[in-house]
Amino acid sequence: MNIRLNDKQYEVAEGASLALFIESLGLQPQGIAVAIGDEVIPKEQWAETILSDNADVMLIHAVSGGQASA
Fold this sequence. Notes:
The protein is mainly beta. The protein has one helix spanning 18-24, and strands spanning 2-5, 8-11, 32-36, 39-41, 55-61.
C-alpha cells in the first residue's frame, strides 16, 4: 500500500504500524512529532497505530539551537 510522508510517496507493507514505518526510515523517535491527517499521534500510540492506504503523514523534526539577536 502507499502512504504520503511530507508529500513524498512511500510503499509500506499492509498492516504496518507507524512505529515500524518510522524505524524503516532509520529515524530515532527522539525529537520528532508525527501527525496523520490533522491528528498528532502520541509516541506511546505509534506501535498500535496501523497505517492505512493513502494515509497523509507529516513528520516534524525538532531543531534546537539558533542564533540570538542583539
